[in-house]
Amino acid sequence: MNARWLLGGVLLALLTACPGGGSGNIGGTVSLGSSITGQSLQIDSQPGKLRRTGEARFVPGEVLVEFRGGVSLQSVSSLRLEVQGRPVELQQVRPLGLANTALYRADLSEAETPALLAVLRSRSDVASADLNWLEQPMATPNDTLYNLQWHYPAINLPQAWDRTTGSNSVVVAILDTGVLFNPSNANQSHPDIGNRLLPGYDMVSPISGANPFANAGDGDGRDPDPYDVGDEQSTSYHGTHVGGTVGAATNNNQGVAGVDWTARLLHVRVIGLLGATVADQVDAILWAAGETVPGLPANANPAKVINMSLGGKGPCTTARQNAFNLVTSKGVVVVVAAGNENDDASLYSPASCANVITVGATDFAGARAPYSNYGARVDVMAPGGDVSKDLNNDSYADGVLSLGFDDQTQQFNYKFENGTSMAAPHVAGVVALMKALSPNLNTAQALQILKSTARPLNATQCNRPSGNDCGAGLIDANAALAAVQGGSTSSFSLSTANTILTAQPGGSVNVPITISRSGGFSGAVSLSLQGAPSGVSGSFNPASTTLDASTLTLNVAAGVPNGTYALTVRGTSGSTFASLPLSLRVGSGTSASVQGTVVLACYVAQGDCDLNLSKAIQVNQGGTSASYTIPDLTDGEYAVLGWKDLNNNDDVDRGDYLGAVVDQSGNLVAVRPGNLQANFQLDALSDDLSQLAPGVLRSLEQSKIK
Q: Which residues form a coiled coil (predicted)?
């Protein structure tokens, strides 16, 4: 569109007389320009393949859809869409345990599935839509010849056991591949698990394809039996190993010890032979925490700690973030693995999600293990091992020792494995010990204690330009429990109402940051933005403060490619720091709908808008076009403009959608009350607005705010 009509200096000159007269209404149609539709529906990337199985990293044809308030899931049991020029019918598979959220399935291939997202996100009744990602356990491939449990002295755990060995009132959920335990058959149970397991659940649901039970591997769908039916190549009996680190039978004269000797364990099987879908994970998170999940029996033993030693490259999906937000608001602490790619953890999920404790891995020497992910999103480090080394010269590779099974001999055994999967349950176990001493300890409090008592890694130990890339450092279990016994520590945390943000290229978005202080902390907090891609910049107001709030303004340059970017807000005050992960979705995924558009009838007076006589309405109808009527206008000439505040900052700025009633040359046309031909389209704005008539700006922005 020709944008000359935007310049205030020529506003009056471009007006032309229009027949008609008398007071009345102005009506017409507002629609999205074709260029905008093309940009908004562009799929910005193609998912890769699974690292271990070669299958798709998401379930073909499946999407997780969150509807806006007021939409009944019963009314959307099926959805009929047009995707890339052909009709597609989505069938609701099941509602999830989140408000207005359900899993849908269509007969689409892997290559066709991503196009669903843009179409769904353009609907006015859809709040979010994500692929049903299929994720993997974080453990690296099996090896033998590992070291003994050097990893417990590494975090001063033996000293911590003098303070507490846990409490059976604390339940730790392990969301993983299941467990090698059959309560009715000792021959199918690892002898060192003990008697502390609670009734868990198998959440691995059928997936689309020729064999819907290929992922489950047990011939059926969900059931109350979380037994791990996998093998060395698919699951490595990963959940049993992880669960053993959290709480193997201890002080029983056989096998290995667990971090917590007393807590009860709740195994929830989410990882099948192909991986773990996000839909199954969301239900598992909620069920483990005692929330109601449609179609599942109630969990009589809600967890206080959840361990998730799994993940994959990609953003934190809306449904999973909502699940984390819900359970952590009720006091559950979620611990996740940072990932094993020697890469920035902010690029992986659930490591990049908010309201979780993200754990990187160290080796025998206390340095970052060479595979461990790093970066601003890592909160703390814990022993994960490195089977390529024998730093203590005991003739065994330096792995983490826990429970296992040998497929060849069909014997239960003990295995040394390495990975951030092995690091995370150390932290989950220590958090369980902390909750034994302080049952109401929440995520922010637990994280601040772990950080404030950790032993920092320097740049050399972290093998990065800065030791900050290894979070607060290696956890110290004894110091953490001492801090719990001694009362709250002086610290702070960062939060915001919405960690998943959207913006258009050329736009901006404001993020209010809340600084929560505890233990008498009153120091100034300095804020910085990390992980921003080229073209995305952030400024804080204020950047350093002793107050409890600041505002981050993210500016997205016009040339920033569509995509989802993981950012981290870091707050520092002396040696104390806190992190807040954000997910910024640029272009693709923002709403390509006219819903929320302000349509302004600007009463033209001396080349500007007369605020007293101008009127505006807001379009509530969804879709790419909608009719509107502006009633009860005073007789006179009006410039009709439309504005969609895409970044929701109450400012008319670059990246928003703007439009006006213009002639074929792009010149602004005057209309009078009673003229029902005031049709126009919205296009993305990239022009300099510095000369826009002040009255036009005020009228648009005040109309939006009202």
A: none
227 and 284 both lie in a single domain: yes
- Which entry of 122, 236, 352, 421 is annotated as an active-site residue? 421
Tell me, yes or no, if 189 is annotated catalytic: no
Which one is catalytic: 238, 241, 267, 426?
238
Closest alpha carbon to 376 in 288, 308, 471, 451: 471
User: What is the extent of the structural domain holding 73?
Assistant: 54-134
Q: Say if residue 126 is in the same domain as residue 145.
A: no
pLDDT in tens, 47-75: 212 122 234 578 899 999 999 988 999 99
| The Cα angle at residue 680 between residues 674 and 684, in degrees rounded to 5 | 145
44, part of any domain: no
Q: Does 176 participate in catalysis according to the annotation? A: yes
DSSP, residue by residue, 497-531:
S--EEEE-TT-EEEEEEEEEEETT----EEEEEES
Within-domain flag for 46:
no
Is the pLDDT at 5 greater than 70? The verdict is no
Q: Is 421 a catalytic residue?
A: yes
Do residues 181 and 264 both lie within one domain? Answer: yes
Give the residue-averaged pLDDT of 431-459: 94
Residue 248, both tokens: 């193997």
Any idea what DSSP says for residue 141?
A: P
Give a yes or no: residue 635 inside a domain: yes
Task: Using the 3D structure, point to which of 458, 489, 520 is the last residue of a domain.
Answer: 489
300 and 260 inside one domain? yes
470 has pLDDT over 70: yes
For residues 619 and 563, membership in a common domain is answered with no
Q: What local confidence, expressed as pLDDT, does residue 53 receive?
A: 25
- Mean pLDDT, all residues of the chain: 81
462 neighbors 374 (Cβ within 8 angstroms): yes
pLDDT at 63: 95
* Per-residue 3-state assignment (H helix, E strand, C coil) for 360-387: EEECCCCCECCCCCECCCCCEEEECCEC
Q: Which of 579, 534, 584 is nearest to 375 (CA)?
A: 579
Look at residue 47 and tell me if it is in a domain: no
Question: Which pTM value belongs to this model?
Answer: 0.71
Per the structure, how many domains does the chain have? 4
CATH code for the domain of 442: 3.40.50.200
In sequence order, what are the beta bridge partners of 571? 527, 578
- Identified catalytic residue from 125, 130, 176, 645: 176
